[in-house]
Amino acid sequence: MTRFTRFLTLINVDDDFTRSPSDVVQKSKFFMRALRTKAQKECDTVAKELKGILDIAGLENVRIVIGKVAEEEEEWEPMGPHPKPGITTLRNWDFKLIQRYKPFYAPFCDMCCLCTYGKCDLSGNKKGACGIRMDAQQGRIVLLACLVGCTAHTGHARHLLHDMIKKFGRDVPVDLGPEIAVEAPLTRLITGIRPKTIGDFEEVLDYIEEQIVQLSDALHTGQEGSVLDFESKALHMGMLDSLAKEVADIIQIAAYKLPSSKPGGGPDVPLVEVGLGTIDTSKPVILVIGHNVPPAADIADYLMEHGLDDAVELGGICCTTHDTTRYYPKAKIVSALGRQLRAIKLGIADVIVIDEQCIRADVIELAQKTFTPVIATNDKALHGLEDRTYDEPDKVVKDLVEGKVPGVLILDPDRVGEVAVRTAMQIAPKRRAMKIIMDDEEFQHWVRLCYQCGNCTLACPIGLRIGGAMAKAATGNTKPLAELFDRCVGCGRCEQVCKYHIPIVDVITKAAYPYVKEERGRARVGRGPVWDTEIRDVGAPIVLGTIPGVIAVIGCGNYPNGTRDAYLITKEFADRNYIVVLTGCMAIDAALWKDEEGNGLYETHHGRFDAGGVINIGSCVSNAHIHGAAIKIASIFARRNLRGNYEEIADYILSRVGACGVAWGAMSQKAASIATGFNRLGVPAVVGPHGTKYRRAFLGRPYVKDDWKIIDARNGTEYHFEPAPQHLLVACETVEEALPMIAKLCFRPSDTDRGRSIKLTHYIDLHEKYLGCMPPDWHLFVRTTTDLPIAKRDELLKRLEDERGWKIDWERKRILEGPMRPYDASFDPTNLPRLVRKKE
Amino acid sequence: MISEAYKSGNVPGPLTAVIVDGSIAGEIIKNAKNPLFVVGSMLATEEAGGKKLSEYAIDIAKRLSARGCVTITTANAISVFKDVKDVNTKIMGVVEVVDRLQDPNWGANGKPHDLVVFLGIHYWLGSQGLATLKHFAPHLRTLTLCFMNHPNADWSFPNMNKEDWGKALEEVIQKL
User: What secondary structure letter does DSSP report for A307?
Assistant: First the structure.
């Protein structure tokens, strides 16, 4: 019996199947039906047996379709309770979070305008025509924001996967080097899959996309109506977002060999130049904008292959520039998102190449004003350009150089490099002869035209007082105008409302031009994942609290007061031996400032994932490695199983890993989904004042005692405990308020007394330094005398006695009565009763 | 009186603030049973009518303290009250105080509030906090004393220049 007839027998197809031509059609249908209906295990076994052996050459008129050959998987870890969780799988976990950290809503709009019943006025928490109340509508909008953010990352990941499989094949190994064994912690945790090749991520993306569709469905009128369930769905979306980011970054690391734990990676990644002043405009300049690196990588390849890497400048804006420098360290980081408008208007680029996300919608219009052709490379941002993907490069370059078209669309990333480089080289001499930067005479004309109506201030997101600075510039003092340059978020709304059509952004840039030319910093290239070996070294000190926290400085540049806050937050915590990890725009903006010796933070602080480190993790999608570091602490240090075990690991992180995200300039929907993903994993986040426009915070109420119950997993004893962490998502008004808040959100119930003492020292010190007084709630975090900062122990004991009525044994310097709970070094906190090992 | 929102895009819906002058604002505070004064970070940086904004805020806070009322300082506003006597202050984040104010039984001085008066909060943070109270704290009325029109408040000053703002704040103080 041949293997094939054995196969047919197994699936109940008789062995004369191929002998009767008249029955072929019928038998084929039967065969396929049998394949579909036969027990999966049996089919899989046979398919496995046949794999690579089945000879189909002799078969006629038979079509065999095998959807997927399931291979028996190596049992690398027992599967946990929640592989590929659906919408309701982790709902109980979400409700635990939301019970403690209740949604706080700040509606941005009183109306719902989503269906034709409306507009509905929901003010005063009224119900709309569909029955939804204002609070649920806010939850709905939060879910919508997370959807938009999550789809951006997932779309990006899928796009990368298509491109990388096409270019390198699906068998590119996921090998992140000798120091990383847990290569994809989120993928393992959420899906239970251990990816070995980039092709293995297809299944992961299939899962994400299916979940996104189901969650999006819930947004439709007449679906979800519960505040809690909207938030649970938003948290689910946030988790999917984190997973999509990991997929995207690991694919590009594996395919492009971006830094990992191979030689030259990790803490040893090179420094690259950052700032508008770093671009050498005597050379042709290509500016890449967006988040999806393949077109930029192709430009770098073309430059290197043609020996042009020193002849042409490749710079970038936003996350594409992070990833470009990870691939090609000769590239320069021109700016974060906040300087995009000004970088384009300055005309430094001879060619602009856009891919996806965070690209100005008016990029073509702006670029035309500086005679800069645009090459769009991604179907998500086509900008009305003609598809010239398969035209002869000679023709495309000619049309761009001669200005016959404002730009072109080239959708195959491997065809972008030649066109971009050749266009830049040919157009650069022409553009150098053109006047792009405003001259002094024109500058004076505009500043004198301003009559201080204040419209620009009303339109400005941060209320910059531009008119007053214009008036001073008209008298020859350009300093106040120049000082607006860094605080400006670069939106350009001021120009839209100026009655005299003053090009306000250009005028400010002109005033600041002497400083802009000198804007030069250095940043360490995005290093990607934190190494397992680093986690082994810092896992214990983080969980015990002696490394007081991991601060994730992430997100966009919609700062309330300029980029210096990014530097200040990073420096303050790194100097205090926290581990500071950065991504995206804040990783760039933090590099723009220097100390008195002229050194930037990446130069004065090491790049190891260890106390005092300032670590550029990379682009937005690299945020997943911050999740990954927290997960690895649970996995590698605490030896918890990861596979399909999200709830337990999130519980571990919430209770033990003193990490806090800071998205000080959060602007995009991606920032919403990123923060929500951190929140579901048990990591709190602080946003700037504009973050309230996301409409929702997760606030803990320390004064509601029953919100703060935690279980000792050793015996099931339930304790009331200190608010650690107090909030899951909170907005702060100023950086001075944010700094102690960030420190406060690093408290965890698992802190040892030594760790708690260190954390309390920083919390009190930051509060005194920036707000000028002791924090009003410091006593909540004291469990025992040794929790108190050593230098202030006696003074604080006295205050506890005098101000709080605590009983103190002064002879033994011990607290006898007062704390919310006693300190127990062996305390094993959990929020999940199922994890109790032995009930008393 | 009609006034555009300070941020031209801030058009929340049909329910927008009634514009008041300093004298009416003073009366509103005077007639409230237990007003709460919430002051923010702009106290440390702003000027009005040639004086520091903090001077007006301290004056108002003192007069309210004399009535047993509390002033909440958010962010770094506490710095201007550091050496000030006769003022009952508490420190809270603006998001946290707005959150507490949704509870009709809560009061910073132990008694429920009927009016919240804001001064010197970052515009958007203030606007969003006022929106929370507008929708979820029907037991409260809200008044802002900033130079920026806040449509989400019950009562707001119109957009005004710093000179006029100083005069308006003086009028408030005189009523107290």
Answer: T
Angle at A317 between CA A314 and CA A322, to 5 degrees: 80
| Residue A258 sits in the same domain as residue A367 | no
- The whole-angstrom distance between A128's CA and the closest CA on chain B is 14
Contact B75 A734 (CB under 8 A): yes
The rounded distance, in Å, linking the Cα atoms of A353 and A421 is 11
Q: Tell me: the pLDDT tens digits for A154-203?
A: 999 999 999 999 999 999 999 999 999 999 999 999 999 999 999 999 99
* pLDDT > 70? residue A31: no
| Domain span including residue A447 | 440-502
**What are the structural domains, with CATH classification, of chain B?**
29-175 (3.40.50.1220)
Give me the residues of B, 52-81, that contact A with CB < 8 A. 74-76, 78-79
Average pLDDT over residues A210-214: 98
Specify whether A352 is located in the same domain as A459: no
Is the pLDDT assigned to residue A470 strictly greater than 80?
yes
Q: Which residue of A has its CA nearest to B40?
A: A733
Give the span between the Cα atoms of A322 and A820, in whole angstroms.
46
Q: Are residues A353 and A478 in the same domain?
A: no
Say if CB B90 and CB B54 are below 8 A apart: no
Residues of A with CB under 8 A from a CB of B: 104-111, 121-125, 134-135, 454-455, 458-459, 461, 463, 497, 560, 689-690, 692-693, 695, 697, 699, 701, 730-734, 736-737, 741, 770-773, 775-776
* Contacting residues for A474 by C-beta, under 8 A, at least 6 apart: A444, A447, A448, A450
Instruction: Specify the pLDDT at position A501.
Output: 97
Cβ-based contacts of A775 with chain B (< 8 Å): 91
φ, ψ (nearest 5 deg) of residue A789: -55, 130
What chain B residue is nearest to A127 in terms of C-alpha separation?
B135
The DSSP H or E segment spanning A539 is helix A532-544
Of A45-54, A686-695, A825-834, B28-37, which gets the smallest average pLDDT?
A45-54
pLDDT at A20: 42
A363 and A466, same domain (yes or no): no
B78, B82, B95 member nearest A731 (Cβ): B95
Per residue in A699-758, pLDDT tens? 999 999 999 999 999 999 999 999 999 999 999 999 999 999 999 999 999 999 999 999
Name the residue among A509, A601, A525 with its Cα closest to residue A564: A601
pLDDT at A13 over 60: no
pLDDT at residue A731 in the model = 98
Q: A93 and A228: one domain?
A: yes
In a domain, A131, yes or no: yes
Residue pointed to by tokens 């002064």: A810
DSSP assignment of B112-151 equals: --SEEEEES--HHHHHHHHHHHHHH-TT-EEEE-SSS--T
Q: Note the pLDDT of residue A19.
A: 39
Averaged confidence pLDDT in chain A: 92
Last residue of a domain, one of A21, A55, A72: A72
**ipTM value:** 0.96
- Reply yes or no on whether the pLDDT at A1 is more than 70: no
**Tokens matching residue A102:** 């209740």
pLDDT for the residue A66? 62
| Structure confidence at residue A269 (pLDDT) | 97
Strands A111-112 and A285-289: unpaired
